Structure formats: C-alpha cells, structure tokens
What we know:
The protein has a domain at 72-199. The protein has 3 helices and 9 strands, in the order αββαβαββββββ. The protein is globular. The protein is α+β, with helices and mostly antiparallel strands. The longest helix has 23 residues, at 2-24. The structure holds 2-acetamido-2-deoxy-beta-D-glucopyranose (2 copies). One 2-acetamido-2-deoxy-beta-D-glucopyranose binds next to loops.
Amino acid sequence: MHFVSTALAVCAAISAATATSLYHRNRCDIRRGEDIFPRFSEYSDWAICKGIITKHRFPNLQAPNNCGGCVRYYRGIDMTGVVTEVHFYHPKVRNACDCAAKCLERPNNCTNWVWKHTFMPDVDGGKRSCTLYSSPNLPSDVNLAYNLDLSQGFLPLDPKNNPQNGSAAPLTFLDAANTIPDRFGVSGFMVQDQNNRQFC
Ligand SMILES: *[C@@H]1O[C@H](CO)[C@@H](O)[C@H](O)[C@H]1NC(C)=O
Ligand SMILES: *[C@@H]1O[C@H](CO)[C@@H](O)[C@H](O)[C@H]1NC(C)=O
C-alpha cells in the first residue's frame, strides 16, 4: 500500500509537468505519411491505472516509464466476448485496475477484461465484478458457432453463448434492467506479442 501511494505521487508529478506543454500545443495534430502515431511520451495522458499496473509489476509492459498504465480501454462499454469466461469478485478484485492486472497475469488465455455490475448479489455482493475472456465482442452481422470437439484451452464456455452472436457492444449499466449507463464500468483489450512484450 505504501509503495502504491509513493508511485502514484511520482506519476502525478510527471503528469503535471507535461500538462503545460500539451496546453500550448492545443491544435489538431496532423500526421501525414506512414507515421500516424502519437508520441510515446504522451501515453500517460490517456492511461488508466498508472502507478498500479507498473513496469515494476509487469516487466514486459510496453509503457514509456514505470508509471505504466493501460491505454487500450473502453469506458462505459463492455467490449468482451464469451470464450474463456473467468470471474473474480470482491474482495479478490476491488477495482478496474485489479481486473486489468488479472488479465495481464494470464497472457496465455486472456486478451480482454470487463469491470461492471453483473447483478448477482449472492456472489458479487452488489459490487462491480471482473470477468476475463479470450474473445472480444463480435460485430452485429457476425455469429460464430464453436466446435467444442475441435477446440481446446478455452473452457469454460457457457452453452448459451454458443453460437456467439454478434451485436453492438453493450454499455455497462447500474441497474439490472440495463436502463442507467454506468460511467465507471470499463473494459479493456490487451495482448502479448511474440517477443513477450505486453500491451494494454
Ligand atoms: C489461464 O492462465 C493462468 C496462468 O497461467 C492459469 O492459472 C489458469 O488456469 C488459466 N485459465 C484457464 C481458464 O485456462
Ligand atoms: C444467435 O444466432 C443464431 C444463428 O444466426 C440464431 O439461430 C440464434 O437465434 C441467435 N441467438 C440469439 C440469442 O439471438
């Protein structure tokens, strides 16, 4: 706990130092040619979980400094799929950063995670919970049926999710009737490449 608060303080100082220069560059950032990418040093502007998902904790994490963090996430949207469904509930996970970390700890069977209310009070105690998957949400016109006999390494797969039917990615919600969007729900995507580098 002490380590985390110290790391957060250092990260906050770095963010404050870059804020001024960003303000003065407040115009459309036109990039032509093949290098369309933002500067790596600006990673921190969008990163969540800085000081928690650090390069110290995940040495292969591709972030510009030890503050780390994840930039590949969807606030208020659940972009996860259905395959390799693994649940974590409070107190094993207490927040979205714990959830992202669970996925980073399982690079061989997790590529995406969601932190949201699942409305199962018996198990989630009324709190948001964490689910990990190896497949993302499919787009509306795509339905996939998984051949269980020819597949491996993906259990469990809930029978009602086979076929996996595509849809617009659902929002995260505060109520079981799915009428009140939850702006603190979040999902994220991550990958480990062939050189063992991790991206989130
Ligand atoms: C995913 O990988 C982790 C870490 O290697 C392992 O402990 C876990 O059993 C795996 N889960 C599944 C569903 O394969
Ligand atoms: C999913 O898609 C399949 C194949 O198109 C269809 O038969 C089935 O009714 C769909 N299920 C749901 C729950 O929409």
